[in-house]
Specification:
Layout lengths: L13 E5 L6 H14 L7 E5 L1 H11 L4 H14 L10 H16 L16 H10 L9 H8 L5 E8 L5 E7 L6 E2 L2 E5 L4 H7 L9 E3 L2 E4 L10 H5 L4 E5 L7 H5 L9 H33 L12 E5 L5 H8 L5 H9 L9 H6 L3 H17 L1 H8 L1 H9 L1
Parallel strand pairs: 1-2, 1-9, 2-3, 4-6, 9-10
Antiparallel strand pairs: 3-4, 3-8, 5-6, 7-8
Helix pairs in contact: 1-3, 1-14, 3-14
Length: about 400
Amino acid sequence: MRVQQAEASPSADLAMVLGGGGARGAYQVGVLRAIAARYPQLRIPILVGISAGAVNATHLAAHPGPFADAMDALVRHWLSLTTDQVFAVDASSLASNMLRSGFRLIAGGQAHPEQFRGLVDTAPLRDFLQRTLKRNPDGTLPGIEQNLTNGQLRAIALCATSYTTGQSVTWVQGRDFTQWERPQRRGVHTPLTVEHVMASTALPLLFPAARVGNEWYGDGGIRLTAPLAPALHLGASRIITIATRYDRSASEAERPQVAGYPPPAQVLGVLYNAVFLDLIDQDVMRLERLNRVVERLPAEHRHGLRVIDMLVIRPSRDLGRLASEYEPRLPKVFRFLTRGLGTKKTESPDVLSLMMFQEDYLRRLIELGEEDAHRQWDRIAMFIEQDAQELAATG
């Protein structure tokens, strides 16, 4: 049930940063649905999407209706997903990809004409996005331009990694911003398309790279050492970010997840967590430390530095451990493959949780996101309504 509540009036410097996590992106949707139930007309002027977060951010930026309607549609899209709508899971496709890579390896990379492009074929995901995102004939998304024109949106940024140059690239569609260039990362103004979303979500080795222009791109989290930076470049002073990794206690973190030699699933899980999920936590910590320094400086000595208010929402449960409860209902061929990687030999199969696009698991993640938002509602409401409170205090 949607709760009618006086609308907050957030300023133009409010941003939302949605990071990666594959299927875990459904958790973000649950949190956002809970917020939309309380603030159906909420406007978030700056959106940043990385990996799975790029799907959610693009949908919000391109939807023509109010926030609550956009979230209703996004929930329906996520709950309509099945594994085979994200990647091909039939035996012939998986066998073809694995045989192709094996032949290529045996031939020293010379004899076999078809290169290995990824463990799975994500053509179904491209088809799904093309159906759910309305497109112009040139592939651009008219809803984004419409929301920029009517002032509902200030900018949307999607992050990807260029395999061609090794740089982290942030594509921005928005108003009144300056393109940036830093060591190994740059911001580029461009109209966004489904191919930009596909590039940002392309998990290395698992999903094939996507071609945009003359370059090939993979997941946005690979080289993006500062995930909150694009929002800052776009003028944000207040950031909401929804993490998809459970914050373990010290005792939980020290408890072994495997016995004996780690299986490939454990190695991949640690690798993907380090690349895609840990960086937001580190970036939040850096900004909090910088805030304390800036707060001590007189305004005339800050030289453009500003205090950044942040709201971080995290899962109350380990989403990898949760995935293992739903593993028996995976498609048979895909389950056979993942068990071969050792997903049953680790207590928290994080790599499995990235790829478990099945309705029961996605529904549980959405429900958990809503539950967590309700538990933290005082923090969320205080952050969203901050501008209105300050205006009342000074009025």
